[in-house]
# Entry
Amino acid sequence: MKTTETISALRTQLAERKMIRQRSRQLRNELASFNTPAQQLELDAILSRHSDEEIAELEAMLKR
# Structure
């Protein structure tokens, strides 16, 4: 692999990681906004409509 290809691949990887971190941060903030009992019940209702695989990431964030 050429040096320019390696640098390009690294830049792409770093951009993807940054995007993932930003998405995770935004999602954590959104989940944290469900702070009243009524909002938490609403969140539970929303999550109950999805499979365990679909909500695994959200559940992991909620446990933290």
Remarks:
- The chain has one domain: 3-63.
- The CA atoms of residues 5 and 11 lie 10 Å apart.
- The chain has a mean pLDDT of 92.
